[in-house]
Amino acid sequence: MSDTTTEPHAPVPDLTAWTCPAPLRDQSRVVMGHGGGGALSAELVQHLFAPAFGGEVLGQMGDAAALTLGGVRLAFSTDSYVVRPLFFPGGSIGDLAVNGTVNDLAMSGARAAYLSCGFILEEGVELSVVARVAEALGAAAREAGVEVATGDTKVVEAGHGDGIFINTAGIGLIPPGVDLRPQRVVPGDVVIVSGDVGVHGVAIMSVREGLEFGVEIESDCAALGGLVDAMLAVTPDLHVLRDPTRGGLAAALNEIAAAAGVGVVVQERNVPVPPAVANACAILGLDPLYVANEGKLVAFVPREHADAVLDAMRAHPLGADAQVIGEAVDAHPGMVVARTGLGGTRVVDLPIGEQLPRIC
Fold this sequence. Notes:
Shape: globular
Number of domains: 2
Radius of gyration: 22 Å
Organism: Streptomyces albidochromogenes
Family: Belongs to the HypE family.
CATH class of the largest domain: Alpha Beta
CATH architecture of the largest domain: Alpha-Beta Complex
CATH topology of the largest domain: Phosphoribosyl-aminoimidazole Synthetase, Chain A, domain 2
Protein name: Hydrogenase expression/formation protein HypE
Pfam family, one: AIRS_C
Number of strands: 14
Largest sheet: 7 strands, mixed
Helix content: 25-40%
InterPro entries: HypE (IPR011854), PurM-like_C_dom (IPR010918), PurM-like_C_sf (IPR036676), PurM-like_N (IPR016188), PurM-like_N_sf (IPR036921)
C-alpha cells in the first residue's frame, strides 16, 4: 500500500556559508592556518612566495639561510612576532623576538652577533607597555650576547593592529666544519630532544583563556646558542638541528624527514612531557607533539656521537632533561611514526595549521 502523505521539503542548506574548524587546503583567502607552521604554511611558501622571490639560497628553507660572503660563512634569519598576550608566564613578546631569532641562527650552528628590530605599534597602546617590552627585549639581547644594531618603528591606526608586533632579523658566523642541514640525515641517526615539550604553547593558552591547571605553567622561552656550542664542542659533525616552535615537535620531525628522504620512528614514551602539560593537553584535547616550544631543540646526531652529545647536553642548564626519543630509518621515507606505550604504531602527520594560533 502506497503512502500518500506528503511532508514539507526541508530547507536546502547554504553550503557556501559553512565553516570548518580545521582550515581547508583549497583556499582563495588567507586563513589562520597559513601562519601555523604546518602544511598550509609550507604550501604558501612553496607555491606563492618561493616562485615569486626565486633564488638558490631561499631554496634551503631552513630556520636560517647559510650564506658565503667574502669567503666568510654566515647565517641570516628573520622572524616576526605577533603573540597574544604580550606578557605571559616566563616571558614576553620582547623575549620571544630576541630568543626566536637567536635560536634560528643557532640551528645553523651560528652564534648570533647582531639583530635588527622593527616595532609596529597600534595607535593607543600605552607607552608604559611599549617600554616594558623594549626593556625585556634589551635584557634578553644582553643575556644572549647579541647586540641590537639597527631598527625601525611604525604606527598603525587603532583597530589595525594588536598593540605591538615585532620583527627581528639576525646575523652570525658559522664555525668552520659545521654543516647543519636535513639533507645530511641518514638512517641510523639518533634523534635527541633537549627537554620537556609543549610548555610554551600551554603557557600561552593558560593565560589567554584564563585556564587553571593546578600549577602555573611557565614558557620555556630561552636562547639556545650556549647549548648548541656545547654540542658542537663534542663534534662539529651534527647532521641537523631544529627548534620545534610553530607546529611543535611533530612539524619539525616531518619537515626533516621529508627533506632528508628518510623515515623517523619516535618512541612515544621517551618524549619528555611534564605532567602539567600532559594534563592540560588531555583537558583541551591537544597532542603535546604538536604544541609549540620556544626554548627546545631537536637534533639528528650520528649514532657514534650520540652518547657524548647527550652527556654534553645534560651538563648544560638548557639541556638537563635531554632525551633520546627515536631514530632515522630506511622504512617509510618522509614519514614520521610513533610507537605507543601499548606497543602500537601511529602516524605523526605534518599538521595542517596549528592547534594554538598566535603563540609567537
